Structure prediction request, 617 residues.
Amino acid sequence: MNDLSLIRKNLFRKRMRAALMIVSIFFAFAIFGVLGAFLRAFYAGQDLAQADRLVVVNKINFTQPLPISYFNRIRNIEGVRQVSHANWFGGYYQDPKNFTVVYAVEPQTYVDIIQDLIELTPEEKKAFISERTGAVVGEALARKWGWKVGDRVPMGSNIYTQRNGSQTWDMTIVAIARPTSPRVDTNFMMFQYAYFNETRTFDKDTIGWILLTTTSPGINDRVSKTIDAMFANSPYETSTDTEKAFNKAFIAQLGNIALIVGLVVGAAFVTILMVVGNTMAMSIRERTREIGVLKTLGFPRGRILKLVLGESVLLTLLGGLPGMAVAFLATLALRDSISQFVPGLAVTADIYIAALILMLALGIVTGIIPAVNAMRLRIASALGRA
Amino acid sequence: MATKALIELVDVSKRFTKARETITIFDHLSMTIAEGDFIAIMGPSGSGKTTLLNLLGGIDTPTSGEIRFAGQRIDGLNEAELARWRAANVGFVFQFYNLMPMLTAQQNVELPLLLTKLNSGQRRQHVETALKIVNLADRAKHYPREMSGGQQQRVAIARAVVSDPKLLLCDEPTGDLDRAMADEILSILQLLNKELGKTVIMVTHDPEAAKYARRILHLDKGRFIERELAA
Prediction:
């Protein structure tokens, strides 16, 4: 027998009570793990955003178009290194339920500007530029539908219509884009803006947003101001910001996700804290006499503190670790089915570390008051001999 | 009987303050307990028996005076030092056994050894020996709920002697047992005193139990009023 077996035996002396506490902690950490993974996936775009990459959108709202002419005018601004543009297609495959991220882009420049995110060989780039209906498909999306280079795929749009009345554009897959890092989401498709612009019925010669890089992050602010000043008082005023700020604003359209998740997780943990804290206190109070006996036998104050705190920490670990394992399995199971909406869903190392810290903190917070009380207990009082 | 003093109380006073009232339990009490002695302390409720046991066992400290154990003062030791001293020198036997319900007899007896540097093999040997002394080697794997009161008290005695302390303090060890079981327990205490040289101090209300001791001390209002030799 050692201290750990003593802690374990104390914890499970009332099995039903211990099991119920473990189950409640288990659910709290399962929720924490899954919501943490959602949050991480949601904000992944911000972390991958380049410091020197700027996004120009319509000042009214990023869903409003900009004239294509802005592309050439911005290209000539001092300090601008690369410029490209993209347009949201509102794509789906076969059925509107199969929502797919599809952009119509300027092929030559767009591939260069996002080369830190995806890899294409020079041949693949050349094919994308030269093939009018050519499309580059991200690895994850290609895997999902079993697409390969050379396949012709009909992509529907829930926004645009072709002149012939069809809402479907035929595209030829010319390359499968590989991610430069596992964190890059490859659930996307991009095709030629020229093809898109020629065939659509409205918003002709407009683009969704302009993406550019500067010669140095230090001049971002100046370049942003120059661009916005250039188009001030025009029918299409612009708002230029870093890609990170743009992504953040995009997510903010959906509400403060972090706050909502924080409130849900916080509520779960405050409840657990009260339930476990109260149960631990009750459990230790019931054992006042036994703690008195241990002290009589010569167990020092520190050892008593360790035994009681060990019990509450073991409890949170026994609930928390399986909770995180289930969160891992749940995200694994959900990953593919919701990859269009929340790409890259995974319980990452930082979530595991945060969970472990939280387990230890929860164990210490719920156990510290009963542990200190047990430590301070006077033997004579505990044994009812005062 | 040995004559070397194991415990000396010199002018020990003990006072408690309850609801602004000071209650004096002992006032300049002095006594000497020889090594190898077996003393039964008797007296009415409130006479100070348990307080005396607490002072002798380092569970409580005197308001004034000196307590010496094997020539060394223990009245000035702090809580941690007293805990170490108790673990090394004193075994306790309580009226209601005070065993840990979730531990087997073997594990209960092993508890005091967790405070030593013995490895698990050495601890197991000590536990086996202690359980053999109290004739409970065959119940080592049993939980307290699976044992009779007398058996539980024997486990408690094994726990008290497993670390080989010089002093055994017993607070009404037979108070919860019938005559036959009480005699069994008292015989074990007598054996520990006679064969293994343990100094035993036993608080009891039972005159029959007191007869197992070498000496009987009657305590009343913090004073020994009568001393007699046991039969």
